[in-house]
Write a structure and sequence with these properties.
single chain; about 475 residues; mainly alpha; two-stranded parallel ribbon; about 60% helix; about 5% strand; elongated; Fumarate_lyase_fam; lyase
């Protein structure tokens, strides 16, 4: 068809940059080509400032105004610099070398041409790249992705608290089972997510800064008297990162594998949440609040579809597939380096973008559901046989206490309930006829599926 049609104007191929742009655009500030290049300029400028402020090779410390101008150059990295870099890179065919030339140009503009040779001094590109990735990934995770995850967990925790007493039939294997409360079930997800958030918050972001093969060889050749490992450590830690002292040319990316593993795990817990909420909606336990003006189905006017949870489910799967691939592949680099990690790392933002999009949908979806307590009550009332577990357990206790001699209580209850429906009257009559103590009998007669919830509501106190 396209053979006959004129071409469209240039279009984004990724839905993150098209249809879903609004939900994820904040990530682009860090995890994009421009975000990476801004961080590269920042690292190069800080290294220049470090070298001059320590008067390395007799360089005079920069005047405060020049320091401020250079830092402003990095901070104000924008359209002009993006275009200039594209032009330089078209010539150099080397993205980091292009950044070096951009900075040299700025040094000339500021009248600082005398220190131009300190730009990218003794650095291999990876020295700049690994620090830039650590800085940008840290910012994206700590400032954008984790806050959104915390917002979703906060919303979920509020729902858990609101519905902590709402008794609900549970379904192990999809079959009626010992009741619980909706709040407790949501609380399980809050607890799981709080754990993984704590692990994510403890993530380390490592940086190396040790030259072409991690030996400081060029550094030492230039100044044999300096303690280059100590300088490297001070510089890396000064950027807010954890120093990695022992690497090949590249930072080994183990921190990335760890981080993406944890993020992927968080995704999978959220995926479980999305499919459970979808199922509760399907069971009628949650009603979807109609959004004014919205359409459910294009042909079935009555419908409100759980599209937020379905969108989240799919995007969490894509995100985890990418995060898993990043974790699995980034930890291998042939000998002292191969360049496979370069193009792989350009997809970190895509991986977090799909997760952020899913979080956005979950947050909105959780705000558009309301518990239908009558649906919960009706299901409980239709499944009195779930009390069989309580009755057989009480009989066992009575046998041990010497108040009953019933042989094999489990089998007795199995005969009564397995595969049949048993109503309240039948169960009461059964309990009345049991050879057990009066107090136990009273307790069992008082029990209904809606009150057979153990201490479910109180378990929420174990949440942070
Ligand atoms: O400091 C160095 O550059 C040392 C050099 N290793 C390299 N380290 C980092 N980047 C390098 C390296 N080599 C190439 N390039 C440039 O990486 C860019 C790769 O582009 P893409 O595949 O699109 O991610 C693309 O811009 C490439 O030009 C070595 O020989 O060991």
């Amino acid at each position: 068809m396209n053979d006959q049609l004129p071409s469209l104007p240039p279009q984004p191929i990724s839905p993150l940059d098209g249809r879903y742009r609004a939900a994820v655009s904040a990530l682009g500030d860090h995890l994009s080509e421009a975000g990476l290049n801004r961080a590269r300029v920042h690292v190069e400028v800080e290294w220049l400032i470090y070298l001059t402020s320590h008067a390395m090779f007799g360089a005079a410390p920069l005047e405060a105004e020049h320091v401020q101008q250079l830092r402003a150059f990095a901070a104000n990295f924008g359209d002009l610099e993006i275009d200039a870099l594209a032009e330089i890179e078209a010539r150099t065919r080397h993205d980091v070398k292009a950044v070096e030339y951009l900075i040299r140009g700025e040094l000339d503009r500021l009248g600082l041409g005398g220190i131009a040779e300190l730009t990218h001094f003794a650095c291999t590109s990876e020295d700049i790249n690994n620090l830039s990735y650590a800085i940008t990934v840290k910012a994206a995770v700590e400032q954008i992705w984790l806050p959104k995850l915390r917002a979703v967990v906060g919303k979920l925790a509020a729902l858990a608290e609101q519905h902590k007493d709402a008794a609900m039939l549970s379904r192990t294997h999809g079959q009626p089972a010992t009741p619980t409360t909706m709040g407790k079930e949501l609380g399980v997800f809050v607890y799981r997510l709080q754990r993984v958030i704590a692990q994510l918050e403890a993530s380390e972001y490592l940086g190396k800064f040790s030259g072409a093969t991690g030996t400081f060889a060029a550094h030492l050749a230039a100044d044999p008297t300096a303690d280059w490992p100590a300088i490297s450590r001070e510089f890396v830690e000064g950027l807010g990162l954890t120093w990695n002292p022992l690497t090949t040319q590249i930072e080994s990316h183990d921190w990335q594998a760890e981080l993406y593993g944890k993020a992927s795990h968080a995704n999978r817990i959220l995926h479980n949440l999305a499919t459970d909420i979808w199922t509760y909606i399907s069971l009628g336990y949650f009603r979807q609040i109609p959004v004014p003006g919205a359409t459910g189905s294009s042909t079935m006017p009555h419908k409100i579809n759980p599209i937020r949870f379905e969108n989240a489910e799919a995007n969490l799967e894509i995100s985890s597939a990418l995060l898993d691939s990043l974790s699995a592949t980034l930890v291998t680099s042939r000998l002292q380096r191969d360049l496979t990690d370069s193009t792989t790392q350009r997809n970190i933002g895509v991986a977090f973008g799909h997760s952020l999009l899913a979080l956005d949908n979950l947050e909105r979806g959780l705000g558009e559901i309301a518990l239908d307590e009558s649906a919960l009550a009706a299901d409980l009332d239709g499944n009195w046989e779930v009390l069989a577990e309580a009755i057989q357990t009480v009989i066992r206790a009575e046998v041990v206490a010497g108040r009953s001699s019933i042989a094999d209580p489990y089998a007795v209850l199995k005969d009564l309930t397995r595969g049949h429906r048993v109503g309240p009257a039948e169960l009461a009559e059964f309990v009345q006829g049991l050879e057990i103590g009066d107090e136990a009998k009273r307790r069992l007669i008082a029990l209904t599926p809606a009150t057979y919830i153990g201490v479910a509501p109180a378990l929420l106190r174990f949440l942070d």
